[in-house]
Every structure is written in structure tokens, then in C-alpha cells.
Acetyltransferase
Amino acid sequence: MITLKGKNIYLRALEPNDLEFVYTMENDQSIWEVSNTQTPYSRFLVKQYLENAHQDIYEAKQLRLAICQDEDFPALGLIDLFDFDPQNRRAGIGIVIQSINDRNKNIGSEALHLMIQYAFHNLNLHQLYANIATDNLASLALFTKFGFQEIGVKKDWTLVNGTFKDEALFQLLNQ
């Protein structure tokens, strides 16, 4: 099991008992915009996903970890490496903290720092990228804090509640 420990939080692999947490996250319409979700997920599908969560990142092309604060196992959010491309040594990265009450408490910063370190030092990636809506000020601030640079804007990229929104592409190179 992968566990990455920071000062106040740790990242761990998903477990079968995360079923209700992941089900709640995937079906929370308030975060569908940032998670790029368009339809609800059944418990059955989430259970199948968790049963396959043991797959290696090289096989699944994704690594999703739970963000935790306490040793008693509850998750506060999720952080993902996706579109893992070992040939070109890159992956996308995304993060979501479930409760509004847990945001702006440095949890996301510490989780992102741990995942960046893991991606660059353990997976030997050359670059990470993030797709961020241009009106998502919290995510823009978080990623730029860690040196991600905006390299372009995709105009009218996502349709949210009948309105097209721009999405910025950010990139961090391991130098």
C-alpha cells in the first residue's frame, strides 16, 4: 500500500471501506465541474472501481490516493495522477477536498506537495500538468504556489450550467 506522509496529512491508497466516501465524492454535483464528471455513479460501479484500485499505475495509467489527516482512516479528499505516460514521462494531476470546511487549511497544499515529490522522485516524471477553469481562483492560487505555469487557455472549453467557460492548461517541469 502506498502511503506518503507529510507534517499534517498523509496520502494513502484507496481501500474497500472507502466505498461510501468515493460514492459521495463522485455524486456530489457541486464538484462535478472540477472532477469533469457528467453523470452519477452507482455504488456498484464505485465498488468495482475500488476492487481494481490495486492495479499498478503502469497498468491503470492512473493513481488515485485518499487525503487523510487522522490515523483512524477517514478521507478528506482525493488526489490523482491521470493520463500517466511513462514513455514521455508526464501525467496530469488533480485534487479535490470534499468539505468546504476543510478547504483553505493547507490540506490541499500539503497533499499537492507530497504528490509532486512522489511523481518526480519515485515515478521519475519530467512534467505534470493541470487543467483548471480560469474562474477557479483557489486552484489557480494552489498550483501557481508550486511553480505551475500557465501555458495556454482553451476558450469556451467546458459547458457549465448553460455557460461556456475557459480552461487554462498549467505545466510544471522537473528541472
User: Anything to note?
Assistant: The mean pLDDT is 88. The helical segments are 19-26, 32-35, 43-51, 57-60, 107-122, 137-145. Residues 104 and 138 are 8 Å apart (CA to CA). DSSP finds six helices and eight strands in the chain.
